[in-house]
């Protein structure tokens, strides 16, 4: 991307202007997507992007700039402009750059560039036809394929130079069903850190059936009466609540600003002893995994909560130093246009030993939130509000009628203490997470679990 000589000159220039640390992030990426809506291909998109980000640290102060022009003079000028914002200090010596090998945890067996668009379009049409077969009430189907290839190079003033290649593949399928009381939608969106083989291996009929049946059941559903009640929260994307309401407050980006209910609580009990929560960037082929983070550190498995005890935060370079914890390989950014901050990777509540049937039998009246939808959260307080995509009333220890319009409302750190049963059916689901360093691929997950009491919004 850029010669080693130019990299060294930029880093040395930053240090000569008083920076304690200098870093270069270069990126070359290709993104493509094809979208089918109402039996028609309505969008084919292909984008290329190249750029360089430069970061200088003066103590705990960071200054960041970027350019799409690789000319050495332009980058040296950018570095000098960044340095003008920082305090003046004694020059630091640049350590010679040394290439560090990385361990590749994902393998691309089918290069997307070898696959024709005709094959992609045929797959999308197959999804559309398979979904519509489940009933005339299916009014609309939207199928989308998204692929990304990203090559990054990271070099810093401590002598690190490392290059990584990342491939992503994701399928999004949504179905809208209507039976006289307004449309109801359902969606499925699996994704992997991998190549086109993901699309060839996908079970079209199974994914289509899940989306169609969920939409059809909700089209037949009545509304739930709200109130405080026990809830059984489904596996997989149910983990979005932990991700949003607890995961973000466990990032040092929130901790260092004293904007988290978990500040200063490492070593304290924050959940019942049955609960262990993990953020693992090393899971092969998983959507949120990494060989290295965007500061060049190897990915790792980080136990956040172990048997109810808060063990760790997710940290980047700046956050680790300010909070006083070890770096966890969690620095991430959407692209070269963003400075890295601590972010989640594959974050999940680990499996337990309780059975689904026992959870349902333990509830006289409550809600089974089989699938979660979108929502909002205040990371500083942990307050959240999430819609239930597919829900069922629980009556007399049995799953009863489907219900629509349910929302789960609460505070993440409070809900942790009310999780009393955790199943063994751990599932992970792909998603996108937005924060100050842009949108990055993340995985959420959990087994089915029981929350003893939570406010359920209804009608």
Layout of helices and strands, plus pairs?
Layout: H1 4-16, E1 21-37, E2 40-58, E3 61-67, H2 72-85, E4 98-99, H3 117-132, E5 138-156, E6 160-178, E7 183-188, E8 191-193, H4 197-201, H5 204-219, E9 222-223, E10 227-233, H6 240-247, H7 252-255, E11 277-280, E12 301-306, E13 309-310, H8 317-323, E14 331-332, E15 341-342, E16 346-349, H9 356-361, E17 365-378, E18 383-395, E19 398-404, E20 407-411, H10 412-416, E21 419-422, E22 427-435, E23 438-446, E24 449-457
Parallel strand pairs: 4-6, 9-19, 10-17, 16-23
Antiparallel strand pairs: 1-2, 1-5, 2-3, 5-6, 6-7, 6-8, 10-24, 11-12, 11-16, 12-13, 14-15, 17-18, 18-19, 18-20, 20-24, 21-24, 22-23
Describe this structure as you would to a colleague.
The chain has 459 residues and is of the alpha+beta class. It is 20% helix and 42% strand. Strands 1, 2, 3, 4, 5, 6, 7 and 8 form an eight-stranded mixed β-sheet that branches. The protein has a six-stranded mixed β-sheet with strand order 13-12-11-16-23-22, with helices on one face. Strands 10-17-18-20-24 form a five-stranded mixed barrel. A hairpin with a 2-residue loop joins β12 and β13. α3 runs parallel beside α5. The termini are far apart.
Descriptive keywords:
about 20% helix; about 40% strand; about 450 residues; alpha+beta; 10 helices; globular; six-stranded mixed beta sheet; eight-stranded mixed beta sheet; single chain
């Amino acid at each position: 991307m850029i010669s080693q000589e130019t990299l060294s000159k930029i880093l040395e220039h930053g240090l000569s202007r008083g920076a304690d640390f200098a870093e270069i992030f270069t990126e070359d990426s290709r993104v493509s997507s094809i979208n089918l809506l109402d039996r028609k291909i309505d969008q084919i998109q292909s984008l290329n992007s190249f750029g360089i980000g430069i970061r200088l640290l003066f103590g705990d102060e960071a200054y960041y700039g970027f350019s799409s022009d690789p000319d050495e003079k332009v980058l040296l000028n950018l570095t000098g402009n960044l340095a003008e914002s920082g305090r003046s200090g004694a020059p630091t010596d640049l350590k010679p750059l040394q290439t560090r090998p990385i361990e590749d945890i994902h393998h691309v067996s089918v290069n997307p560039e070898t696959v024709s668009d005709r094959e992609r379009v045929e797959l999308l049409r197959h999804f559309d036809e398979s979904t519509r077969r489940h009933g005339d009430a299916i009014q609309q189907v939207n199928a989308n394929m998204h692929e990304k290839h990203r090559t990054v190079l990271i070099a810093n003033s401590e002598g690190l130079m490392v290059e990584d290649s990342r491939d992503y593949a994701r399928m999004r399928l949504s179905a809208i069903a209507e039976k006289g009381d307004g449309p109801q939608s359902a969606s499925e969106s699996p994704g992997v850190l991998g190549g086109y083989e993901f699309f060839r291996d996908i079970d079209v009929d199974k994914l289509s059936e899940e989306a169609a049946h969920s939409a059809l059941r909700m089209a037949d559903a009545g509304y739930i009466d709200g109130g405080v009640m026990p809830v059984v929260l489904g596996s997989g994307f149910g983990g979005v609540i932990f991700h949003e309401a607890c995961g973000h407050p466990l990032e040092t980006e929130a901790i260092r600003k004293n904007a988290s209910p978990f500040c200063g609580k490492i070593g304290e009990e924050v959940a019942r002893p049955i609960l262990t929560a993990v953020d693992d960037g090393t899971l092969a082929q998983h959507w949120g995994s990494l060989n290295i983070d965007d500061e060049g550190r190897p990915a790792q498995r980080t136990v956040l909560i172990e048997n109810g005890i808060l063990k760790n935060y997710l940290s980047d370079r700046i956050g680790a130093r300010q909070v006083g914890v070890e770096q966890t390989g969690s620095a991430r950014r959407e692209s070269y246009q963003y400075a890295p901050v601590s972010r989640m990777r594959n974050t999940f509540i680990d499996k337990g030993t309780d059975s689904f049937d026992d959870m349902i039998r333990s509830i006289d009246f409550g809600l089974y939130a089989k699938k979660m939808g979108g929502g909002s959260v205040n990371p500083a307080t942990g307050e959240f509000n999430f819609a239930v995509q597919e829900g069922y009333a629980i009556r007399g220890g049995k799953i009863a009628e489907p219900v629509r319009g349910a929302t789960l409302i609460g505070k993440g750190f409070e809900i942790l203490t009310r999780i009393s049963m955790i199943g063994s059916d751990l599932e992970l689901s792909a998603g996108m997470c937005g924060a100050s360093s842009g949108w990055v691929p993340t995985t959420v997950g959990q087994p089915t679990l029981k929350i003893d009491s939570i406010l359920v919004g209804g009608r």
